Amino acid sequence: MTRSLLGRLALAAATGLLAAGSLAAPAAASGTGVLEGTFTTVTGAPVADSMISVWVGDGSDVWTHLWTDTTGHYEVSLPSGGYLLAFDVHTGGQWSPRTLDRAEAQVYTVVEGETLTVDEQQL
Question: Residues of the signal sequence (predicted)?
């Protein structure tokens, strides 16, 4: 083999190893958990198509929005950490657990590899 061909083979092998390593990294470093629950009325009926705002734990910014399905259920994968939940009930909103005051909202902690269930009842 020529020196040029050996150099190209070595470069190809190194590139392949780097690519394989980068594919494995996200799975090993995902650090996510699941936040799920059901939003219901005081009589237990589902609150469908209600927007839920997931705020970072200090309340400084919205992390994401999602909507309840027809059964009032919601589910989202989130990085580990603390979050506040705001439920929009089409005519206003509320914070979890069952308060209109953000200062009274609970910080829910999502843990890597775990599912946290937060069921909420409409005020």
Answer: 1-19
CA of residue 81 relative to chain centroid, distance: 10
> Do 2 and 47 belong to one domain?
no
Q: Residues 107, 57: contact at Cβ < 8 Å?
A: yes
CB 46 within 8 A of CB 32: no
Give residue-wise pLDDT tens across range 82-106.
Answer: 999 999 976 679 999 999 999 999 9
Residues 39 and 86 occupy one common structural domain:
yes
Residues 17 and 65 in one domain: no
Does 49 share its domain with 15?
no
The vertex-41 CA angle with 63 and 95, nearest 5°, equals: 30
E-strand stretches of the chain: 32-40, 51-56, 62-67, 73-79, 81-88, 93-95, 108-110, 115-117, 120-121
